[in-house]
Amino acid sequence: MCHETDSRPPAFGESGRITEQGALVLTAGDGTRFSALHAFTAATGDPAGVIILPDARGTHPYYDALARRFAANGFNAVVVDYYGRTAGPGARDADFPWREHFPHLDPADVTQDVRAAHDFLRAHGDGPVVVVGFCYGGGQSWMLAAGDLELAGCVGFYGLPAFAAGVVDEIHVPLLLLLAGEDVATGPAEFDAFTARLDAAGKDYEKHVYAGAPHSFFDAAYDEWQDACRDAWSRTLDFIQRRTSAVGA
């Protein structure tokens, strides 16, 4: 598991106003109804949208709080749950048996669900959309950079590069890789091999490794990693702002 069941993302004084937030149900192209969370900013115009791909727990309360963090920084955010096909819509709290459902995940199904989330954001504004993923979701985010969704950027926190390794040549969306130096889920050699392939293919990406940080370091409970959390959050917001501002420029 990526985080403890009571984990929450760190907060750094976000002060923007949120107009709406909460749980909803979206429908994928194959008719699957799945859970989602959303939080919308009060910022005027067409704010950029953020699709959040969680770790293996799905729409855990950690990601509800994270969506609100993004909304307080001026973005519309939606969190995608992975388990509509095997568990139906519903809460993904500490009692949800995600380990029973996780082995049945198909990246192609996740892509369908992301497309529904993308449509949901676009139905509420024309701003560019980025994907931000964590662990399993981080790898899925990088993989989506090779797909046909209209995206301005794909961010992964301590993601699993295996998902994107086979589609490196097709990647056409800028990537941000935020990596834990002491990641037990994916070792440095695997990340080095992935970035070497990105370099050889001439892909547009940014990478930062937090030396000594553990997998899932982006957590309010890790007092010793709050500087790394603050830096990772700053890099994420800066990346989103730069990449979404560049769309249509």
TrEMBL record:
Gene3D superfamilies: alpha/beta hydrolase
UniProt xrefs under InterPro entries: AB_hydrolase_fold, Dienelactn_hydro, Dienelactone_hydrolase-like
Domain Dienelactone hydrolase as annotated: residue spans: 46-242
Pfam families documented for this protein: DLH
Cited SUPFAM superfamilies: alpha/beta-Hydrolases (SSF53474)
Protein name: Dienelactone hydrolase domain-containing protein
Protein's organism: Streptosporangium longisporum
